[in-house]
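Weekly sync, protein design subgroup
Attendees: M.S., D.O., the rotation student, P.L. (late)

Item 1: inverse folding check
M.S. brought a backbone from last month's batch and wanted to see whether the design step gives back something sensible before we order anything. D.O. pointed out we never logged the input encoding, so this time it goes straight into the notes. Structure tokens as presented (697 positions):
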């Protein structure tokens, strides 16, 4: 009971309704081929709420008696542990002790079985009672109000944050942080080291060890107007040699040499170079996955699905999960696909002139027929033109991408174009072996499974941007997932890195495709994570630097791209169309960019209630931006990492490195932290307990 009282003391005033609900599962999934397939029929009724008549009819009297006896036994003999589980059950989740009781028959409508063999038994948890008069605060756009920034924090959390930032300001400590953490662990032992990390870096930057222990953090965020983007931040602590070995092995195809003249030499940007095989090189703000085997990719898929279920149970449709495509398949496939896309653009440019994506040329099927008319009545050309994707405004794609994301196309046969001189079909990529074709279909299947699950749970998916040699394939696949799943709302979001010279044109092109194919467009705008690596690689391999020349050029690109998105949203509003056809996340720790977005929203006439623009920052960074936004009624998100202490050390190492690079922001955050600590000292609020009365927009 002591534990329950302590938990209740820390709870926010966000109260969850329990009417008419049974077991409040957060959507646990069962693997169909697993050993416990038949065991999923066990049924548990809620210990907090009365079971509905429909649920009572779903199990036999004998099962009901067994369940009742078990519940009474637990309540009598194991009251403390049982009450802890009640805490979680009231929030619509199951812990390891209770999740085995969840029935596979409790599904929303009928069970949704995916091609990967997963069956959803998701039942939406009861929605929270919304306060009758939710609080809204005026926004200080200078972001200098320490009370608004930190009213969601205890005084101890403020002191901890200040100490963490002091350490992050020490260049020597940050430079050797991973060695220091490993040395400290060796001295203290695992248990003491874990306690130390939870009271310092881990406690500041990470929400908890698993999807059940992060619930109190998510609830507190919600009560202060902030929503989560969940990310299971476990990373492998690979040596440079091991990372290079994995990357080279997974990026080289086992294909036989192509026939002479069947393909051109590999474009420099898409060559594998051992110097850059460790993709963590000069990258602090992004996680890197290295391919090991298909089983690892399956486990990554399962992890992403658990993130979806966790965020769904805690946020009721407002949450987001971030994923990386390199976690779901062999990177060599993305490398090849990216090169094919760039060769396709070059093929179109050679035929019709100009530059850019195929749809930017605004050519029709009849225009292409004219280019091929010198070949006469050519069967190959006719077959090729039959598969070109077009609409009344012109050609969208030379290849049937819808078939590719539906897992039913052979890549080697798909990416072929007629030679304008001979009419012979030539491949834009080498012949891909059957095994690698299967690997690609597995990658697409995994992504389809994740996005289907997100749609079922009403959670959004943000597919992270990666290096430029992967990005054409990632963006192309993501856009096709949007076309497939964003029919009624934006479920899938793409990420655009504004330090790239082509960022504006890429966003513009994708907005145009969304408009012409009538799907909801979602975009996360970031400055980018791979700038130093991209510059070094371009110089070493001899291709044009894809990065903007300086910080100001990147800021200009970011603002230009954001302005174009807002302009198109205004057009939708003025035409009486659904403004939510375009959804944008301003993911930036730069307060000038956030101010710019707010000012443009006001100028164009977009209000926070339109729910088309949201803002996002990392947990433990720039709280003075996120919380005032959420408390003023703007859609604000925190990127929430979680995972076991020992396995998130690489993530913590990167956060320390990233903070070292933004000392100006740290100075401001330290100043505001000291101001709030001093204010509480003066007012006798050292034991202040955060209690929010806000509702996220």
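Designed sequence read out in the meeting:
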């Amino acid at each position: 009971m002591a534990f329950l009282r302590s938990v209740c003391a820390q709870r926010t005033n966000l109260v969850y309704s329990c009417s008419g609900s049974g077991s409040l599962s957060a959507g646990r999934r069962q693997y169909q081929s697993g050993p416990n397939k038949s065991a999923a029929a066990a049924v548990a009724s809620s210990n907090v709420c009365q079971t509905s008549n429909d649920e009572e009819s779903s199990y036999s009297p004998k099962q009901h008696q067994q369940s009742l006896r078990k519940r009474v036994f637990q309540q009598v003999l194991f009251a403390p542990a049982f009450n802890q589980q009640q805490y979680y059950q009231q929030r619509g989740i199951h812990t390891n002790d209770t999740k085995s009781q969840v029935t596979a028959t409790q599904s929303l409508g009928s069970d949704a079985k995916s091609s990967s063999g997963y069956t959803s038994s998701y039942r939406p948890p009861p929605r929270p009672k919304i306060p009758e008069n939710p609080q809204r605060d005026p926004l200080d756009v200078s972001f200098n109000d320490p009370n608004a920034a930190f009213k969601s924090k205890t005084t101890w959390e403020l002191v901890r944050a200040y100490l963490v930032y002091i350490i992050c300001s020490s260049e020597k400590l940050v430079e050797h942080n991973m060695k220091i953490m490993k040395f400290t662990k060796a001295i203290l032992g695992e248990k003491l080291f874990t306690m130390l990390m939870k009271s310092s870096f881990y406690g500041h930057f990470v929400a908890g060890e698993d999807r059940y222990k992060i619930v109190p953090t998510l609830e507190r965020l919600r009560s202060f107007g902030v929503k989560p983007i969940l990310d299971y931040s476990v990373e492998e602590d690979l040596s440079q040699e091991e990372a290079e070995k994995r990357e080279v092995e997974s990026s080289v195809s086992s294909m036989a040499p192509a026939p002479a003249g069947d393909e051109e030499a590999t474009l420099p940007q898409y060559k594998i170079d051992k110097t850059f095989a460790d993709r963590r090189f000069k990258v602090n703000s992004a996680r890197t996955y290295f391919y090991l085997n298909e089983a690892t990719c399956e486990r990554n898929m399962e992890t992403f699905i658990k993130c979806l279920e966790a965020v769904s149970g805690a946020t009721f449709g407002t949450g987001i999960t971030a994923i990386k495509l390199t976690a779901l398949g062999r990177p060599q496939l993305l490398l090849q696909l990216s090169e094919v896309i760039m060769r396709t653009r070059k093929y179109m440019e050679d035929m019709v002139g100009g530059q850019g994506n195929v749809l930017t040329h605004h050519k029709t099927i009849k225009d292409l027929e004219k280019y091929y008319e010198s070949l006469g009545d050519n069967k190959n050309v006719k077959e090729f033109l039959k598969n070109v994707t077009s609409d009344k405004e012109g050609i969208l794609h030379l290849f049937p991408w819808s078939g590719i994301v539906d897992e039913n196309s052979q890549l080697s046969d798909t990416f072929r174009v007629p030679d304008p001189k001979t009419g012979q079909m030539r491949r834009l990529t080498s012949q891909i072996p059957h095994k690698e074709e299967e690997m690609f279909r597995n990658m697409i299947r995994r992504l389809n499974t994740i996005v289907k699950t997100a749609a079922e749970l009403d959670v959004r998916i943000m597919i992270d941007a990666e290096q430029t040699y992967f990005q054409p394939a990632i963006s192309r696949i993501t856009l096709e997932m949007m076309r497939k799943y964003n029919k009624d709302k934006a479920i899938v979001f793409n990420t655009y890195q504004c330090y790239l010279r082509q960022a504006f044109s890429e966003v513009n092109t994708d907005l145009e495709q969304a408009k012409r194919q009538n799907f909801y467009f979602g975009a996360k705008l970031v400055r980018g994570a791979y700038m130093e690596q991209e510059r070094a690689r371009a110089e070493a391999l001899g291709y044009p630097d894809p990065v903007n020349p300086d910080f100001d050029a990147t800021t200009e690109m970011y603002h230009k791209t954001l302005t174009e998105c807002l302009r198109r949203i205004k057009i939708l509003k003025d035409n009486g169309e659904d403004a939510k056809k375009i959804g944008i996340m301003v993911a930036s720790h730069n307060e000038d960019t956030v101010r710019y977005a707010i000012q443009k929203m006001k100028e164009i006439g977009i209000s926070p209630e339109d729910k088309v623009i949201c803002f996002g920052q990392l947990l433990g960074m720039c709280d003075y931006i996120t919380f005032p936004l959420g408390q003023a009624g703007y859609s604000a998100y925190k990127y929430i990492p979680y995972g076991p202490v020992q396995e998130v050390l690489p993530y913590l190492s990167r956060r320390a490195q990233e903070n070292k690079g933004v000392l100006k922001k740290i100075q401001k955050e330290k100043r505001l932290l000291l101001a709030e600590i001093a204010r509480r000292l003066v007012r006798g609020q050292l034991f202040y307990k955060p209690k929010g009365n806000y509702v996220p927009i």
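Discussion: The first strand starts at residue 15 and ends at 16. The chain has a mean pLDDT of 79.
Action: P.L. to compare against the previous round before Friday.
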